[in-house]
């Protein structure tokens, strides 16, 4: 899995591609998220449109990110999950926990209104 991030207008914009399986980069991503939250960034848009596959560890990474932001009074929005990932979010009922939008513009709007 590859990931990139940038901070724009006090919003962390994370982008994942490949397979989100958590074991290899999970701890590194969580550490990076902690560092950013400690800089008083409490909103996060996660683009998962290029995720081909996600397993339980990958779901754990997303839940950990969500928990860390919400514990600081913030919010996380998932952007454009593939059909396969969307089905998994529905099966696990995580679609009721995460805000899911179709594009970055919607994500920014939703975060600014949260």
Helix content: 40-55%
Q: Uncertain segments of ≥5 residues (pLDDT<50)?
A: none
Q: Which secondary-structure class do the elements indicate?
A: alpha/beta
Give the class-level CATH name: Alpha Beta
How many domains, as an integer? 1
Q: Do you know the CATH topology?
A: Transcription Regulator spoIIAA
Helical segment tally?
4
Gyration radius from CA atoms, angstroms: 13 Å
Question: Quick gist of this model?
Answer:
This protein is an alpha/beta fold and about 110 residues long. The chain has four helices and five strands; from the N terminus they run ββαβαβαβα. It starts with a strand and ends with a helix.
Describe the model.
The structure is a single chain. By secondary structure, the protein is an alpha/beta fold. The protein has one domain (2-109): 2-Layer Sandwich (Transcription Regulator spoIIAA). 40% of the residues lie in helices and 32% in strands. The protein has a five-stranded mixed beta sheet, with helices on both faces. Helix 3 (83-91) links the parallel strand 4 and strand 5. Helix 1 (26-37) packs parallel to helix 2. It starts with a strand and ends with a helix. 31% of the residues are buried. The mean pLDDT is 94.
